[in-house]
Each structure stands twice: as C-alpha cells, then as structure tokens.
Specification:
Blueprint (H helix, E strand, L loop, with lengths): L10 H12 L4 H13 L35 H9 L3 E6 L1 H19 L12 H9 L23 H4 L7 H7 L7 H4 L10 E3 L4 E5 L22 H10 L5 E5 L15 E7 L8 E2 L2 E2 L3 E8 L1 H4 L10 H25 L11 H5 L24 H11 L26 E2 L3 H4 L5 H5 L1 H6 L7 H20 L18 H36 L2 H4 L8 H7 L25 E2 L19
Parallel strand pairs: 1-3, 1-4
Antiparallel strand pairs: 2-3, 4-8, 5-8, 6-7, 9-10
Helix pairs in contact: 1-2, 4-17, 11-18, 17-18
C-alpha cells in the first residue's frame, strides 16, 4: 500500500505508524494520518511525542491584543523563520468558519438538488447499508449526500465530464475551504478593525473576527469561545515550521471528509502531558493527543521550501506538478483575451448525431440514448450541412460523428495545443469547463467562487441541451430550436447573456490561480527558469497593451504534461490514449 512513497519509512516513522494504528479515531482519519506520516516528516504534522520548547503569545479576543512577541529556542526553527518572510497565520474562530461551511453546503445542495437521486434509488444502496450499520436514521445527518442522476441531461455532465460519481462527487463539491487570499490580504494597517500581531518567529498573526470576504451576512460579534492558547499557537508554529497558514479553530476529525477537505488538511494536535498511557507497543508509551483544529497552507502541501526542490530530481518533479496549473492558467488567460463567436449556434450537439444516408449510427448516440429526439434525422442533417459547424472547443470534436468532422470550419483533426488558439469566451462548453479548472485547485480555492463557478457551469449545460436535438422537457429543460432562424436568434441572445455572466467569474478564477501559484511555488519555477515567459515584458516589446491579460506559458512547452500533446478526432480516443510526438504537434 505504501510502496510508492518518495521516502523510505524510518524507524521513528515506523513507531509512529504502530501507535497510529492503536489510536482511537475514525478509520478514514487514521488512514489519512498514516499517509501523512509516510509522505512528510513526522514533525510537520504534530506527531512528535515531545512538546516544543517555545515561549509563545496567548492570542485572545482580537480587540484585546496589544503587542507581544515570542522567540523559538530551537535553532532549526529560528533558521526557518529567517528564511521565510511575511508568513501569516490567519486564525478563524469556530463561530465564524463553521456557519460559513454550513452555508456553502446548503448552497451546493440547492444548486444540485434537481439532479440528485432519492435515497431510495438503487445507486444509493451502499449509503443506506452504511446508515443501517451505524444505526442511524435516514436523513439524520443534514449533510447526507446522494448520487447525481446519470440520466438527467442537465446534470449528468458532472459525472461524464468531471468524474463526480456516486455520493462522493456531490460531497466533494459540498466541502468548504477558506479563501487562500486571506494569507495575502491579512496584514492590515494599525487602525484596522482586526489587529495583526508580529511574532518573533517571522509569522504575522491575524485573528479574524468576521469573514467579510465570504458573506456580507457574516456576524461581526466578538467570538467568546475562540481563545487560542499558547499551547495551540506553539503547536501551529512547530507543525507549520514557521510558515503559518489558515487555522480553523476547533475543527475536528469528524469535520474532515464531511464539511472540510481531507486533502491539504494539517491536523493541529498536542499531547496530554498529565495523562500517561498504560498501553505499551514495542516498549513505547502511547500518548493521547488533543485535537485543536485544522491548518491549511498550500506552501506546506506542495513543499515549497523543501530542500529537495533544489536537486535535479526534485526540480523535475516539481515542474511536473506545476505543469497542469500553468496549462489551466493559460486557458483562462487566452479565453479572456479572445474575441467571442456567436454563430456556432450550439451545433456540436447536432454534429454528434449527424448521420448521412447509408452510414452507421454515430457512436456518440450512446451518451443520451435514453432521451427522445425532438426532430427528424433529415432535420439534424440539414442543420449540420446548412453552413457547416464553427465549433472552437477542441474537446468537443472527439464526440462528433465521424462524417461531421470535415464539416467543421476549424478542422476535422485538432491538437490539444490548439485549445490555446481556439478557446473563446462565447463558447458554452468553455463556461462548463470552468468547473473542471476550479476543481483542480481544491482545497485551496475560495468556496464562494466554487459555488459561482458551479452555477455558471449548470446554466451553460442547460442552454447546451436545450439547443440540442434532444427533448429535455421532462427534466425541466426548455427548447431552443436552433434549426430555425428564430431559434438561432434566441440562442445568440442567451449565449451573450451567459458570456457576460461568466466573464467576471472567469476573471476571479484566474486571480485565484495567480494567488495559488504565488503561495504554493517559488517564482523561479512559476515565472522563470525556462518554464514561463515574462508576459508583461513581452507585451511591451511587441507593442501590446501591457495591462491586457496575456498567456504567460503558451510559448513554453519544455515542461508540459504529456497529455498536452494529443490529437482530437471525431470518434477518437481520450487525450491520454491518443498522444503524439511534439514534432508532430508542430512544436
């Protein structure tokens, strides 16, 4: 199970693993902790059995904080503190983050509700069995999720395109995460409402008494139970190696996997010194620990300051990790800079069903075979042949009927890299794909933005299927008859409205990518060292507007993921199974 880890299990790690097996926590959380031990140094996750010798500040109510400092006696901690500048510890009291988490879950449930199956559906039999085993009543857990309906044409794209299968898919969307921008924006002026405390370990501590960047209705009252003791602060500093992060006070193991993300979560714990255990494993005393909360920090998750990144192998691995983020960031930039196209009329769905006389049925008919078709075969063929197809979405070409490929004005065979050239802001499928791009950042993504992205994505899908040859009225959809002139006018009108709705969401997502990459990776890897060209300098040299967003990585393919070099053809294989050589891609 653990043979693929980067580092070998040390004797100390082995001892801790044995102790974790005997720890009384949920099975899922135990597996989570074991994985953390194997992937990272044990001290990073607070699993060391020795308490840190640190004099720390007691952080009370934000309005009561004056000024104070603390000094780490550990030489290693001091070295880390000197190396890292302007790191921030953002402490969010439970009375602030938990209501936000519940609001996020409720909003996701509201957005997905029309597409969720009932608990009695056969696909949810495993959930019912699990509830019976736990002797809980159905519906007792307010966060009980069910699977999406694979036959609902408005919502099944979440399963087919983005892999949100079973109850795990909706549950993933329903997990809340704090906005990483808090780490950049939390150092405020001295007269701000939420004071900042500078500590001797290089950490700027800010205790948020309200989450005003999430919801205007968030309470602004003083948190009475949000005291962070010196023991908690000491544990955070030791576990984060002085890097800080966003700390959710009083989050517990039951929250992980339910309303909070397991991925990226760093448990903040400390031993109970006054409660020695009588249980022995291999002559070592097992010591219970107090769970104080959860810390999220992208720089810790991606090992930004790990010395291994300075080795050749480490750099190579890091560039592979960064490559997908650079790709999606480039897609966002080029789409924002594109000129919209409003004459495609959603005919990609018609191209999927195109079938000239005496030809076999198109392979893509299988995807919605349960739906009735509202027009005749002759009408479908006539709509496709009328002026051809102007589909700029590279991924959609793979689902065309083979005979429809030559009718696409942008080519019957496209490379994945053509997406940087063709993707445009009027494309309905480009709006749907915002969800895929956003999910790549989880859990380091503003939960409010995820909800907005999902809302746009569902709206785009609804227009997509309403303009298709299928009859989706039984699922709450309407009809946009693009086979008629009136229908095409209606499609263009709704397409423009959707573009205007998606534009600010796409800009926010790009900003989120910039924030994430700044926090997670060294600028030498993100903005230099053969991997990224300085976009602003390039714009000025070419006489372009330096304030206009530009593609910062499209000219650099040295560290691109292999699936970036793949071919799209009607009825073709998925990207990863249809790779080509870079020279064939013209690079």
């Amino acid at each position: 199970m653990y043979c693929c880890t980067r580092t070998k299990t040390s004797k100390v790690q082995g001892t801790i693993l044995q102790r974790l097996v005997a720890t009384k926590v949920t099975a899922a959380f135990k597996v989570f902790l074991i994985a953390l031990v194997l992937k990272r140094p044990t001290a990073v996750y607070g699993l060391s059995l020795q308490r840190p010798k640190v004099n720390v500040v007691q952080l009370l109510d934000p309005k009561m904080i004056k000024s104070t400092t603390h000094t780490a006696t550990s030489a290693a901690a001091a070295a880390t503190a000197r190396r890292i500048n302007n790191n921030v510890l953002v402490i969010i009291p439970e009375s602030k983050w938990r209501p936000e988490a519940h609001r996020h879950t409720q909003r996701i449930q509201t957005l997905l509700q029309p597409g969720l199956t009932s608990m009695d559906d056969q696909i949810n039999s495993g959930i019912r069995r699990s509830l019976r085993q736990q002797k809980r009543k159905l519906g007792q857990n307010q966060h009980q999720w069910t699977a999406l309906d694979g036959k609902n044409p408005i919502f099944n794209f979440l399963i087919e395109y983005y892999g949100l299968k079973g109850a795990k898919g909706p549950r993933r969307l329903g997990r809340w995460s704090p906005d990483p921008k808090l780490l950049l924006n939390s150092i405020k002026s001295a007269d701000a409402d939420t004071p900042t405390v500078a500590t001797g370990d290089g950490i700027q501590i800010q205790c948020l008494n309200e989450i005003d960047c999430y919801n205007d209705s968030a309470s602004t009252s003083t948190d009475e139970d949000g005291t962070v003791t010196e023991e908690i602060l000491s544990s955070i500093i030791e576990i984060s190696k002085g890097q800080g992060g966003i700390f959710l006070h009083n989050a517990n193991e039951e929250d992980l996997g339910d309303i909070l993300h397991l991925r990226g979560a760093i448990p903040i714990t400390s031993p109970i010194p006054s409660t020695p255990s009588t249980e022995l494993i291999n002559n070592n005393t097992v010591q219970d620990r107090i769970f104080h909360g959860i810390l999220y920090n992208p720089s810790l998750f991606y090992n930004r300051y790990d010395p291994i990144n300075q080795t050749t192998e480490g750099r190579k691995q890091l560039l592979k990790t960064i490559a997908p983020f650079q790709w999606y960031k480039s897609i966002l930039e080029t789409t924002l800079n594109s000129e919209p196209i409003f004459h495609c009329h959603g005919l990609h769905e018609w191209a999927m069903l195109y079938q000239p006389p005496n030809t076999p049925p198109p392979p893509s008919r299988k995807y919605q075979k349960h739906l009735p078709i509202r027009v005749t075969r002759e009408t479908i063929n006539a709509a496709v042949e009328r002026r051809g197809i102007s589909c700029t979405h590279v991924d959609a070409l793979r689902f065309f009927a083979p005979d429809a490929g030559p009718l696409n004005h942008h080519g019957a065979s496209l490379m994945r890299t053509d997406q940087l050239r063709l993707e445009q802001k009027g494309c309905v499928h480009a709006h749907m794909d915002l969800l895929k791009i956003a999910l790549k950042l989880q859990p380091f993504l503003d939960a409010n933005l995820l909800c907005d992205v999902l809302e746009v994505s569902i709206a785009a899908r609804k227009l997509d299927v309403e303009a298709s040859p299928y009859d989706v009225t039984s699922y709450g959809g309407g009809v946009v008859p693009v086979e008629t002139e009136e229908g095409r006018r209606l499609y263009r009108s709704r397409q423009k409205e959707l573009m205007e709705r998606a534009e600010p969401v796409r800009k926010r997502l790009l900003h989120e990518y910039n924030t994430f990459m700044h926090l997670s990776f060294d600028d030498d890897f993100v903005g230099g060292e053969k991997s990224v060209i300085d976009s602003s300098k390039g714009s000025e040299q070419e006489g372009q507007d330096p304030n206009k967003m530009t593609d910062s990585s499209s000219n650099s393919y040295e560290y691109a993921a292999p699936e970036r070099f793949a071919r799209a053809q009607p009825g073709g294989l998925p990207w990863r199974k249809n790779l080509v050589d870079k020279t064939e891609a013209g690079l």
